[in-house]
Amino acid sequence: MSKQVDYTLVPVKALEEPSKCKLQEDTRVKVYPRRWLMLLMFSVCLLVNCVQWIQYAIIPQVITRYYNVSTTLVDFTSIIYLVIFVPAIFPASYILDRLASLLMGLRWATLLGAGLTALGAWMKVWSVSPDRFLITLLGQTVVGLGQVFQLTTSPRMAAVWFGPDQVATACSIGVFGNQFGVALGFLVVPLIIKNHDTLLDIGSDLSFMFYTLAGISSIVFIIVLIFFRNKPPLPPSLGQALQRATAREGHKNDFLGSIKRLLCNSNYTIHLVAYGINVGMYNTVCTLLGQLIEIRFQDWEQFAGRIGLLIVLVGTAGSMVFGFILDKTHKYKETTLAVYILTVLGMVGFSFSLASESRLLVYITAVLLGFFMGGYMPVGFEVGSELTYPEPEGTATGMLFIPPSILGVVFTLLYSWLIGVIGDLWASLVFAGILGIGAILTACIRKDYRRLTANTGPKHRHQDLN
Question: Is the pTM of the predicted complex or chain greater than 0.85?
C-alpha cells in the first residue's frame, strides 16, 4: 500500500473479525490538505492554554510579594493544572467518547477546551488586587479544566485527520502547541512582570498580561467555533474506516468496559506507570525551575526564564524528530526506550551542572534534558494508542494523564521538601534514579502494535516482531 492514499479502493477483508462489524468489500480512504489547517488551530488552542500554566510559578518572588502568600501557594498555581486532571479526566473522556459516537466528539472537545481557556483568562483579569489570590486560583482551575479536553484529544486529532504514515508526526506537531505555550510563558512573563518598588506598578503589569491573554483566548475560541471541523468526509486510514463502520452499524462506546479492558492490558498498565514518571518529572522540573536556579545563581529571574524556554523549545524539536522517526520506522519500543534512557542521563547531567554554578554547563545540559524529556510526551501518546487499539483514543490518552497528574503533585512537593533536607544536588539525583525506574519499566513492554496491524495488515506486524 502506498504511503499516501487518495480515493484509492482498498481491500479490507483482512480486518474483518466475527466479533466486529464488517466493512464494505472496498473502502475508500483519503487524506485531505485541510488537515494541516485543523492541526494548526488545534495547536494554537493548546498554546494559548499552556502559556498560562507557568505564568505565576516562574516569577515566585513577585507573586508572593504582590499577593502576600507563601511560595507553596504560588507553586500551587501550576500544580492545580495537575490536580484538576484527576477528577476531570473521566467525565471529559466519557463526554468525548459519547460525542464521538455521534460523530462530533473532536469538534466539541476542542470547543470546550478553547472556551474554558478564554473563560479562565477573563476570570484572572479580575484577580489583579493583592486580596484576590483566590480568584487567581479559580481562574487557573478553569483554564486547567480546558486543558483536560485539549490534551486528551491530541492523538485522536492525529488519527482522525492523518494517514498512518503521518499520525506520529501530526501528534508531535499537536503537542508542539503545548510545549511552545509553556516556552512562551517562561520567556514572556519575566519580561512583562517586573518586581517594581510599588505594588501598584506590579498590578499594572499583571493587568496588561491578563487582558492580552484574555483577548487572544477569545479570538482563538471564535476562530475554532467558525472553522474547526470534526472529521474529514472520508477516513484517512483503514483503522479509522473500521471505527467509522462500527459507529455506522450502531455499536455504542462502552466507556466503563473500555476502562476495564485498558486496565487489564498489562502492556498498557506498565506504560501508564512509565509515562507517569517521565511526564510527572517534566512537570515538576518546570514548576520548580525558578527555585532550583535561585539557589545557585544571583539575578536568577531572567536566567530561569531562558533555561525554561530552552528546555521547552528543544523538547518541541525533540517531539517532532521522534514523531518523524516513529512514522518512518514504526520502531515504537526501541524509540521509546532510547528516549527514556537519554532522559535519565540528561537529568543527571543537569543536576551536576546546577551544582557547578556554571551557566554555560546549565545551558548545555538543559538542551539535552529538554530534547529527550520534552520529546517523550508524543512518543508516549503513540505507544499508548498502538497498545490499546481499537479502544477510543480519548479514553486511552485520558488514562495516560492520570499518573503524571498525581505523580507531578507528589514529585513537586517531595522534590521541594528534599531540597531543604538534603540539598538540591542530592534531591535532583534521587529523582534521576526514579526516572531510571521508568526506563526499566519501559524495557519490560512487549511489542504489540495493534493499530499498525489494522492499518497495514498482519504481515507487516509479523515482519516487525521477527
Answer: no
